[in-house]
Design goal:
With about 280 residues, the protein is of the alpha/beta class. It folds into two domains: about 100 residues, Roll (Ubiquitin-like (UB roll)), CATH 3.10.20.10; about 130 residues, 3-Layer(aba) Sandwich (Cytidine Deaminase, domain 2). Helix content is about 25%, strand content about 30%. The protein contains eight helices and 15 strands. The relative contact order is 0.14.
């Protein structure tokens, strides 16, 4: 099945601009936010508010983070739905599973609550924080990252945020090697969605796990972002802002090096500092 026409990730909007010199009616650009319905075997599973683009990657990364799948080989097909009389089907992705997950589809659909995973919530529908914790093994310290590489990651991410330049309203996430080479990058109105798109890109290429890689994010680091990195086997997370207390606890448990406040010539290391060459 061919891909549908790409939906525009930005929208033209009218704005009344107030300035010291007066007011003016102008046209501006806003980040698009639309619902993506994710279906399992033609049946509704969840709705995710996202910025259009990389929908297949977002679906794959989301299913990994939710524990529905554990590797790319368990994805049979990930396709946009299309209907000539219903353009809204461009906001629907249908996933068919293989292997053990295929046999659990009915149970998963029965257990899933009807929730809306909006742009500010990457774990809607889960009852407790404990239910989110993966039972994956802590990651081994297989690689090291130089201080100079850490300091350069925020600018390397920011320089590739073309949609942020237009709108000022999108988060960015990017995967780099520990030497600083870019592997994947995504933008979205949701921090968690941007990470899912990056992880989903690598999942669809069957490149998980990802030792020797660093996840760079444009905002703060939450529990959910650490969990997604852990499931993808990413050894380090680098952010320009602060981590939450729960993110720090989970990173310590997961064996992930968590770095925050990467600004200017300094940064904070909250867990497993031995990976960073100072």
């Amino acid at each position: 099945m061919s891909e549908p026409p790409a939906l525009d990730p930005v929208r033209r909007v009218r704005v009344l601009r107030i300035a010291a010199t007066g007011t003016s009616a102008e046209t501006d650009v806003a980040a698009a936010e639309e619902p993506l319905e994710l279906r399992l075997h033609d049946r509704p599973f969840v709705v995710i508010m996202r910025t259009p683009g990389a929908d297949r990657e977002l679906a794959a990364g989301f299913l990994l983070s939710e524990g529905i799948i554990t590797r790319g080989a368990e994805l049979g097909a990930v396709e946009h739905c299309r209907h000539p009389q219903h353009p809204a089907t461009h906001n629907v992705v249908n996933v068919f599973l293989l292997g053990a997950p295929r046999g659990r589809v009915e149970a998963m659909l029965a257990e899933r609550r009807n929730v809306l995973a909006n742009a500010s919530c990457g774990v809607c529908g889960r009852l407790t924080i404990d239910s989110l914790k993966t039972r994956a093994r802590p990651l081994a310290a297989a690689s090291r990252i130089d201080r100079a590489v850490v300091l350069g990651l925020p600018d390397a991410l920011r320089s590739r945020q073309a949609l942020f330049d237009q709108t000022g309203g999108l988060h960015g996430a990017a995967l780099f090697t520990t030497e600083g080479a870019l592997r994947a990058m995504a933008e979205d109105v949701g921090r968690h969605n941007a990470v899912d798109k990056v992880v989903g890109t690598m999942l669809l290429e069957e490149r998980l796990p990802l030792p020797g890689h660093v996840l760079a994010v444009s905002g703060r680091t939450s529990f959910e972002i650490v969990q997604k990195a852990w499931l993808a086997g990413i050894e380090a997370i680098c952010a320009v802002s602060a981590p939450t207390s729960l993110a720090i606890e989970l990173a310590a448990e997961a064996g992930i090096t968590l770095i925050g406040f990467v600004r200017g010539r300094g940064f904070n290391i909250y867990s497993h500092p031995s990976r960073v060459s100072l």
